[in-house]
Amino acid sequence: MSRVPSIGLILIFKSTTCVLMPKDRFPIWTLAIVSGGVKAVLNPLVLVVFSWDFWQAFRHTCARADAPLAVGVYYESLCPDCKNFVVDQLNVTVSRVPDLVNVTLVPWGKANVSSDDGSVHCQHGPEECWANRLHGCVAAAIDDASVRTRAVACLMAAQKTLRADGPACLQEPPLTFAPTMTLDGSQGTAEQQKQLLDDLLGVVCSTWQQRTGQTPAGCQQ
Q1: Cα of 11 vs its chain's centroid, Å
Q2: Where are the beta strands (DSSP E) in the chain?
Q3: What local confidence, expressed as pLDDT, does residue 183 receive?
Q4: Are residues 179 and 158 in the same domain?
């Protein structure tokens, strides 16, 4: 195989499939193969690696196109502007288009760590430091993105009376039936609860298939 195809191989292997799109990678391969002549075109390694590389690039490009947008929110628990954003913007967005966003909550804001004793100082005082920790625990403990965002928005709405009214934001809905199941942190509707009760394996398999497009061996009848 000539030097040009070899250089083409190096370029492909050193690039990531998510950076170069198939339409950008195709000319690289075309140049490498054409410059290398018939031997390069007929070389099994070139053909195999080209086919695999192009398929991987296409597959990853499609996956990236469908991936949710990563939204990071760096806020303070007692900040009025943060409250307005979380309640009026973030909660509404996650509620309406939960599949389009992947939200990361960072309740830190303008807090800083003292170089003298390592203590944390928050912009709105010690009470905000406590509230930031509360928000951090909530963000870490609740898996379902919609439930998590709704709980944080509730805490932000109760900003001025957080110690008194905050616990109500974190209460689980009362059980109307036992057992009650959750899937990905959500109880779902009454009909979904019935489906979980009657056929848990079926619900898990169908949900997994919808999410990944794959059918695990244990789901095959």
Answers
A1: 30
A2: 69-75, 101-107, 112-113, 120-121
A3: 84
A4: no
State how far the Cα of 18 lies from the Cα of 53, in Å rounded to an integer.
11
Same structural domain, 86 and 165: yes
By C-alpha distance, which of 34, 18, 26 is closest to 54? 26
Query: Could you say which residues of the chain have pLDDT below 50?
Result: 1-21
Cα separation, 45 vs 12, whole angstroms: 13
Rounded to whole angstroms, the Cα distance separating 1 from 9 reads 11
Strand partners, 101: 69
Which amino acid is present at 214? Q
What per-residue confidence (pLDDT) applies to 143? 84
Residue 40, domain extent? 3-65
- Given 169, 185, 204, which residue is the final one in a domain? 169
Judgement on whether residues 142 and 106 belong to the same structural domain of the protein: yes
Q: Are residues 54 and 74 in the same domain?
A: no
Identify whether residues 79 and 136 lie together within a single domain.
yes
Listed in sequence order, the DSSP H helices in 75-144 are: 80-85, 91-96, 126-141
- pTM equals 0.58
Same domain, 108 and 156: yes
Instruction: Report the alpha-carbon distance of residue 120 to residue 205 in Å, rounded.
Output: 46
